[in-house]
């Protein structure tokens, strides 16, 4: 196996670690540690390099995810996943790979336990058999199946069976941008789901709402305050996590806005302001 080049697997491994951790910074650390372990491995004993490296990265990411959850509970305000430019998200050759790296899915995966998240990602995105997943995560095959079913149920509950196409998603986001640029609260009202939730992640470094904002009336009031204070005319569409988002400069800071859609309206609104989380979005 001496001819196997770790770099051939790096994009796939980064994609796996990112899906498990929701942070590309942490994913890069995990993959670098996997590279160090690969260098110290007798590769003549490795029959399947892909399976070996998937196992190493999954276990390292699981260990990091367990400790990261404690840090995220102490985070200032809502913790949102780190957005990444689509070009940095790793292979997106299948619908499952695209869906599991979408921003809304990453956000929802924060509700899963670390083993649930690992089982879900390994099964959905990387199509591993349950016996291999069970060995990686340290479970019985029956428990791996059960965790996958539980994770799938939790992630699909309340979501549209028919997801909007990329074009429909971009069109709705563009309508939101135009309404924001024109300060048109009436148009914004029509675009928001009655049960919309807005999350803002400033990480204590940029002023942002410290709690999620629930319901159309409260979200509109929040947006109205922003529109009265800032000029949205510089907003631009960008490609993030395999889908459209928009970036805008407000009060000297760049903000990235992403949305999830249900019943043709915006159900969740994510504002990422923490500058530490925007490096891999490549907005400059």
Comma- or semicolon-separated keywords:
alpha+beta; Butyryl-CoA Dehydrogenase, subunit A, domain 3; 11 helices; Nuclear Transport Factor 2, Chain: A; elongated; 284 residues
Residue fraction in strands: 15-25%
Instruction: State the total count of DSSP E strands.
Output: 6
Shape: elongated
CATH architecture label of the largest domain:
Up-down Bundle
| Gyration radius, in Å | 20 Å
pLDDT < 50 stretches: none
Number of helices: 11
N-C termini distance: 41 Å
Q: CATH class of the largest domain, please?
A: Mainly Alpha
Structure description:
By secondary structure, this protein is of the alpha+beta class. It has 2 domains: 151 residues, Up-down Bundle (Butyryl-CoA Dehydrogenase, subunit A, domain 3); 116 residues, Nuclear Transport Factor 2, Chain: A, CATH 3.10.450. Helices cover 50% and strands 15% of the residues. The protein has a 6-stranded mixed β-sheet. Helix 1 crosses helix 2, helix 1 runs parallel beside helix 3 and helix 6 runs antiparallel to helix 7. The radius of gyration is 20 Å and the shape is elongated. The model has no long low-confidence stretch (mean pLDDT 91).
Question: Outline of this structure?
Answer:
The protein has helices at residues 6-21, 24-39, 49-73, 95-101, 103-109, 114-124, 130-137, 141-156, 166-181, 185-191, 216-229, and strands at 192-201, 213-214, 236-240, 243-250, 253-262, 265-272. By secondary structure, it is an alpha+beta fold.
